[in-house]
Specification:
Length: 163
C-alpha cells in the first residue's frame, strides 16, 4: 500500500498475553542514523506498549543497510528469538548504488526469513530524498518502525495460531 494512503503508525493490534513471552530482535543500520534511530525507538516503544517485556527486546547495530541480512541471520539463529525486525534507510543518490543496495537488502532479508523459518521484517525505507525519509520516520506519514513492530507481532500471533 502506498504510504500516501496510510499512516505508518496506525494499527488495530491489541495487547495480547502472548506478547509477554515473545522475544523480538532488532537489527538497526547506523547509516542515516537520524532516520534509523527514530524508527528503532518507535519500534521499541510500540513493542513495550503491546506487552513485550523490555528484557525480551534484543537490539543490535550494523554499519549500514547492506549488512542487515547477515545481522538478521545471526540474530535469528538464536533459538529464543521469535522474530527479527530490520531497520534501515537508503536514500537515492546520483548513482545506481541505491538500486544495488536496496535489491541486495530486500532479497537477503527474504532469504533469511525463508531459510530460517522465522519472520524477518523489512523495516527499510527506500526513499528518493531525505525529506521522504523524515516523513516516514516520525513525520507526516507516521513511523515505519511502528509498522515493522506491528508486523512482527502479528507474525508471532500467526505462528502461535498455526503451530
Amino acid at each position: 500500500m502506498a504510504t500516501a494512503l496510510k499512516n505508518l503508525s496506525e494499527t488495530s493490534l491489541e495487547q495480547n498475553k502472548t506478547f509477554k513471552s515473545v522475544h523480538i530482535g532488532l537489527v538497526v543500520a547506523d547509516w542515516n542514523e537520524e532516520i534509523t534511530h527514530s524508527m528503532r525507538d518507535a519500534a521499541i516503544e510500540f513493542l513495550i506498549q503491546k506487552g513485550v517485556q523490555k528484557k525480551n527486546i534484543h537490539v543490535h547495530a550494523v554499519p549500514g543497510t547492506f549488512e542487515l541480512p547477515i545481522g538478521a541471520q545471526w540474530l535469528a539463529l538464536k533459538s529464543k528469538i521469535d522474530a527479527v525486525i530490520t531497520i534501515g534507510c537508503v536514500i537515492q543518490g546520483e548513482t545506481r548504488h541505491f538500486d544495488f543496495i536496496c535489491d541486495a537488502c530486500a532479497n537477503g532479508i527474504t532469504e533469511v526469513s525463508l531459510k530460517l523459518n522465522k519472520p524477518v521484517i523489512f523495516g527499510v525505507l527506500t526513499t528518493n530524498n531525505l525529506q521522504q525519509a523524515k516523513d516516514r520516520s516520525g513525520g507526516k506519514h507516521g513511523n515505519k518502525g511502528i509498522e515493522a513492530a506491528d508486523t512482527a507481532l502479528k507474525m508471532c500471533l500467526l505462528n502461535k495460531t498455526l503451530f
